[in-house]
Amino acid sequence: MTNIKKPKHIAIAGNIGAGKTTLTEMLSKHYKWIPQFEDVDHNPYLMDFYDDMPRWSFNLQIYFLNSRLKQLLEIQRGTETVIQDRTIYEDANIFAPNLHDMNLMSKRDYDNYFQFFQTLKTMVAPPDLLIYLKASVPTLVYQIQKRGRDYEENIRLDYLKKLNAYYEKFIEDYKEGPILIIDCDKNKFAENEEHFGEVISKIDSQLFGLF
Q1: How far apart are CA 21 and CA 95, in angstroms?
Q2: 85, 101, 109, 158: which is the annotated catalytic residue?
Q3: What are 49-76's pLDDT values in tens digits?
């Protein structure tokens, strides 16, 4: 057990409703890691964005980029292991291109945003482990309905489907560091202790090479 480098940054990626927050909470408790969540309640753009996406998409994405970068710089400066609910990569590789694709963000705004992201990316280290929660659209819909957030009620199936396609491509191309994929159609870690145990042993072997 000597010489094991303590991980500093675990990040959870996954579509809306995949279970990122739940898993972040469970893992932070199990490993005594510090959780960092997306602050949905204090986001000054979110409600406006859902009302008028083309008008507010760029503002929203810049807000996310800034808050995520701030988190990453805090993680690098700190000494504790932090587990992060959603990554800086998802904003740039999934949500922004999808908005551009759906004509909800102009090409000019998207190019500006993406170049800004590329610059910022050089300032931060990738996570020691990226955990991807892979889920089919029916699973996502079920979990979104279960938590009943008002502003998510109008999320369309084609929107989730397109995001899933972007996620698949992103994960396929991800070369920044170690990655662990959890299939949430099969693994119900939130309600099944054995399933959560499987997740733990996979993380242990990835991070600590115990098995």
Answers
A1: 18
A2: 85
A3: 988 999 999 999 999 999 999 999 999 9
